[in-house]
Amino acid sequence: MKQKITLGLIFIMMLSTLLVPTVRADVITNNIPQIDAVSFIVVEETSGEVLFGNNYQSKADIADLSKIMTAVLAIEKSDMDKVVTVGKIPENLPGGINSVFLREGEKVKMEDLLKASVIYSANDATYAIAEAVGGNEEKFVGLMNEKAKEIGMKNTTFVNSYGQSNDEGSQQSQSTAEDLAILGRYAMNLEKYRQLAGSKSFEWRGEAMPAVFDNKNTFITGMAEATGVKSGYDERAKYVLIGSAKKDGRELIGVILGSSSEAVMVQDMATIINYGLNNTKMVPVVQKNAFEANLVFGENKQTTVVAGEDFSLIRPAESNAIIEMATTFDDIDLPIKKDQKVGVIEIKIDGQVLNQVPLIATEDVSGSISVLFVITCIMTILYIMQMSLRAGRIIKKSARSAPSRNNTPQPKQSQLNKNTKSQQPKTLNNPPRKNLSDRPNHNRDQSPRF
User: Fold this and answer.
1) Closest C-alpha to 307, from 269, 345, 272
2) Cα separation of 426 and 405, whole Å?
3) Digit-coded pLDDT (tens) for 371-391
4) What's the CA gap between 230 and 416, in Å, rounded?
5) DSSP H or E stretch at residue 51
6) d(CA 67, CA 121)
7) Which of 78, 158, 199, 351 lies 20 to 30 angstroms, CA to CA, from 291?
8) Nearest to residue 51, comparing CAs of 292, 269, 273, 270?
């Protein structure tokens, strides 16, 4: 049974927004803050929607922010309790204040290496992670670039696991503020990374230098609502930061690249995140499991249909828009299973589709075959078989009745006289044939009739 449900439910709602976004439009385009940065961006953590920014699709050096991707791969591909035997640390690896002075052969748990990398930004610990997870630095960098593509970072190239370089002329890892916002969101959705990035300090029990190290990301202590994610610096990239903060249930992520000083960068991050929180709002449009309709397929055959997920829009705080929600249903085959997608809710502004929310069934609906349908199928099959047999018999009979072309020509039948009886055919002794149309046809009246 196939039934097409054509159900259009249009809801017009007056909500607080004026902006009608295009595919890549920012929520706020006017009067955005001006800060000391080569580029910056602010996005909604839950959806990734861009609130505002400047020059955020331009590539720039990213220094220590590469370590975020290193941590992501370590968390996803390694056991935190794994004991890593540290290999030889390259002599040209940047060190100094970005080192915990690991020794070759030293044994350290993966979780402790991650703390040193994420919280203290230690290059040697980051390098040890890369070798432990990827086998060597080169293979691990390949994994970093594969992961970048996988999560949608389209303009990013990693050249090492730790980000920094002592060589001014060497190639460095590059990305955009837009791509780094994607990476920041992804990392903060990993529980282990969120825990590490939000830590203010950690205790290091290394052989060479046991100590308590503070988080290098001073934004963690520079804004009360801060939750993560990481900062960095080198001579080429200058000061860089991905920061996140949560207030009244909303979390925003900001990215600043190319700032001239750490103190200015931290203050600017607080400025742009607060601006985003104060000048935009999240408007719930669809709530998960909210009732939408009852689908009825006949007596005692129905199911309730509900929204399959939440959906909210980020809008400027002081504006209005008309939002349309059109509910449509798919062609539906019985049976239907619980939680099966049966349609969508299209969310539109001025006719432009912003998103589609799936509609799902809340109960099973069994499918039954009509008795009349079964009888009709059986009778149709029997009729086809009967006609096939009859056609076979007719073909065989026609073959037996057909004259052989190798026999002597058959005698002609004399014309019938309307007023006399038909005469007997006269047999000729091999008469000449001048016209094929004179050939006798004794089978004319013997053809099967049906």
Assistant:
1) 345
2) 20
3) 455 465 566 676 677 777 777
4) 113
5) strand 50-54
6) 8
7) 351
8) 273
Query: Could you give the CA distance from residue 272 to residue 276 in angstroms, rounded to a whole number?
Result: 6
Q: How many Å separate Cα 312 from the centre of its chain? A: 19
For residue 100, give every residue at least 6 positions away whose Cβ sits within 8 Å of its Cβ, in sequence order, or none: 116, 120, 122, 124, 125, 204, 206, 208, 209, 213
> Do 345 and 325 meet the contact criterion of CB atoms below 8 Å apart?
yes
Which residues lie across from 9 on neighbouring strands? 327
The tokens describing 41, both together, are: 């961006």
φ, ψ (nearest 5 deg) of residue 160: -155, 175
Name the H helices within 257-310.
262-279
In this predicted structure, which of 168-172, 312-316, 444-448 has the lowest mean pLDDT?
A: 444-448
* Domains of the chain, start order: 2-18+285-361 (2.60.410), 39-260 (3.40.710.10)
Residue 67 has pLDDT above 80, yes or no: yes
Q: Is 60 helix (H, G, I), strand (E, B) or coil?
A: strand
Over residues 341-358, the mean pLDDT reads 85
Spatial distance between the Cα atoms of 431 and 434, rounded to a whole number of angstroms: 10
pLDDT tens string 422-440: 444 444 444 444 443 444 4
For 301, 305, 342, 357, the CA distances from 4, given in Å and listed in that order, are 15, 15, 11, 19
pLDDT band with cut points at 50, 70 and 90 for residue 230:
very high
Contact in structure between 111 and 117 (CB atoms under 8 Å): no
Distance CA 74, CA 329 (A): 43
DSSP 438: G
* Whether the Cβ atoms of residue 61 and residue 172 lie closer than 8 Å to each other: yes
Q: 344: part of which helix (H) or strand (E)?
A: strand 341-349
**pLDDT higher than 90, residue 95:** no
Q: What would the two tokens of residue 421 be?
A: 């009886």
Q: Which residues lie across from 265 on neighbouring strands?
A: none
Residues 6+ apart with CB under 8 A from 225: 245, 246, 247, 273
Tell me what percent of the residues of the chain surpass a pLDDT of 70: 76
Residue that the structure tokens 């389209």 belong to = 154
